[in-house]
Structure formats: C-alpha cells, structure tokens
Amino acid sequence: MSYDLDHVTHQCSCPCGKGKIIYGNGTNDWNQVKEGMSEIACPECYKKYKFSRGGLLPINYPEYHGDKDAYEIMHRLSSIISNYCGDMGYRFWSDDLKKKRLQKYLTPEEAADKRTMYIALVYSKRLAKEYSLVTLTEIADDIRSHRYSTQVSDLSKEIVRSHKIKFNTVKLKDVIIPVEIAIRNYDAYKQADKEDAEYIAMLQKKCDAAKAIYYKDYDAYEAERKKHVIPYHLMPVK
C-alpha cells in the first residue's frame, strides 16, 4: 500500500525552482506511518530526475551493471551463505551430505518418518545449539521422572513450551523425543557446525572473488556518476 508524504519536516527548492524537494513522514489508508520519505514535489522535475547518492540524477541515467556471470554467482552464493546454517539450511545441502548426516543422526526406522527426520535436521539440532549437553541430560532425566508437563522443572518447561509451539502437543512422551535425539547426536551436531562453517568460509571466498569481478569498473562509473549529480540541501520547515 502506498504512503502519502503528508508531514514535511525538511524541504528545499527543486532544480527548476518551480517546486520543492520535500522530506518527512508519510501515512497510508491504515494510518500506518513511514518515516524518512523523500519526494520531488514538482511536476517538471519529477519527470526529469530521480534520487541518487548525493543528490538527484537525470531519470534515465543508468545504474551500475558489472559482469553478468559474476553477478549471478554472487547472487546464488549469497543466498546459500545466508541460509545454509539456518533452520532450513538442509535444503541447500547436497543429497549425499543429507543422506550421510541422516544416517548418523537416526536409525533407518526413524529416518523413514518425515516428522522424525525434520526433528533431527532442525529442531533437535537447535536444542543442541541452545543448551549444553549437561543441561539437556538434566532436562531429559526430569521429563522421564514425571507423568505430566505441569510437574517438570522450570527449565524443562521451556522445552515443553517450545515443543507445543512447534508440534502442538505437551505430552511428555513426545517432548522427550527431540531431547533424546539432541543428546545422542550432540557431538555430531557440533561436528556438522564446524564442517558447515568451513564450507561457508570457502563459499564466501568465491563470493568475494565474484564481487571483485562484478565491481571492477565501479570506481570509474562512480566518478562519472558524480559529474551528473545535482546536489540539494534540505532545510527544516519552520
């Protein structure tokens, strides 16, 4: 939904002098506020110029475009890097890596169940990241020693609440499963984190190399762009 810049805090004259460049806050039909909006409030200049770093540029002035292949590599690797270690990072793993880790994390019977597979790849791995092995062991012992979730310790209740949000149940026979998987795979998860960090570092080097190729002509572009910039100086509205 679009916002109307209806609260002007700063302004100055536009290039042609018939209108203004304004800055302030905008609202939409839902009375939501968007701060830091800029607008060329001149029918003529609005058609001629666009905002750019340091001022205004002719509206048709080209943006920087480097090597297309390098850009595609940057885009692809950046996506992998930003998602690889997240909850859904396993979607970026190779089939061989996923198979290898599942064989380490789960029994064949467990791996045949999609829910248990998700628990091992995501939820239990997160537990191993958030809690120490000693703490997880204490939580598991506490859960096993009680029948109802209302009876467990405050620390165990954290796991119960998390499990309810994720799996919509607080039955302790279900809550204990991810905890046990996290305990028995604790070292394997830590090893996987180390391997993933090394892999991400390798990808980052490739991404940086592609970035260097993509931006190799940027300094020359920027020097030329600055020659066409029309600066403006906003002043507070009294």
Features:
238 residues; alpha+beta; two-stranded antiparallel ribbon; 10 helices; 6 strands; elongated
**Cα shape:** elongated
The main sheet comes to: 4 strands, antiparallel
How much is the average pLDDT? 95
Report the total helices. 10
Can you put this structure into words, describing what you see?
The chain has 10 helices and 6 strands, in the order E-E-E-H-E-E-H-H-H-H-H-H-H-H-H-E. The protein is an alpha+beta fold and 238 residues long. It has a 4-stranded antiparallel beta sheet. It has a two-stranded antiparallel ribbon with strand order 4-5. Strand 1 (4-13) and strand 2 form a beta hairpin. The model has no long low-confidence stretch (mean pLDDT 95).
Compact description:
56% of the residues lie in helices and 16% in strands. It has 238 residues and is of the alpha+beta class. The radius of gyration is 28 Å and the shape is elongated.
Describe how the helices and strands are arranged.
Blueprint: E1 4-13, E2 20-27, E3 33-41, H1 43-48, E4 49-52, E5 55-58, H2 68-83, H3 95-105, H4 108-111, H5 114-130, H6 133-144, H7 154-167, H8 172-184, H9 186-214, H10 218-228, E6 235-236
Antiparallel strand pairs: 1-2, 1-6, 2-3, 4-5
